[in-house]
Amino acid sequence: MADLVMGQLTDRYTNRMGRYRPWLLLLAVPYGISVFFVFTTPDWA
């Protein structure tokens, strides 16, 4: 379902940077934060 929604968004959205680059730049920060939290272990004593 999410693939269909993102496909519709990228098909309808055009920018001077292209169709996909704004989405990749926008989602890079949340993706980086989520990867950081997935691979860190809290030090709970």
Could you describe the 3D structure shown?
- This protein has 45 residues and is mainly alpha-helical.
- Helices cover 64% and strands 0% of the residues.
- It is built from two helices and no strands.
- The longest helix has 18 residues.
- The radius of gyration is 16 Å and the shape is elongated.
- The N and C termini lie far apart (41 Å).
- The mean pLDDT is 89.
Secondary structure elements and pairings:
Elements lengths: L1 H11 L8 H18 L7
Cα radius of gyration in angstroms: 16 Å
Low-confidence stretches: none
**Molecular shape:** elongated
Count of individual helical segments: 2
Strand content: under 5%
Order of helices and strands: HH
Structural class by SSE content: mainly alpha
The main sheet comes to: none
Give the overall pLDDT as a whole number: 89
| DSSP E strands, number | 0
Distance between the termini: 41 Å
Residues in helices, as a percent range? 55-70%
Short synopsis of the structure:
With 45 residues, the protein is an all-alpha fold.
Key structural traits:
mainly alpha, single chain, 45 residues
